[in-house]
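Hi V.,

You were right to ask for the full record rather than a summary. Here it is.
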Amino acid sequence: MKISDMRVKKLHELNEELMTLLKIQFSLRMRHATQQLSNTQQIKKNRKDIARLKTLIAQKKNYEE
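Predicted structure:
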């Protein structure tokens, strides 16, 4: 997911996207723990996407105040 795509979304859409990514992260961790995950780079990519979203959400909250 690109940051430019995330910037045009509203705050509640970003929060929904964050919840989706957190659910995906949980499933990836479970698949990794049970040796069913073949591409472990997905975990790293997902974690970075979550960090980008959290940063953008914080910026938008500070801008609104």
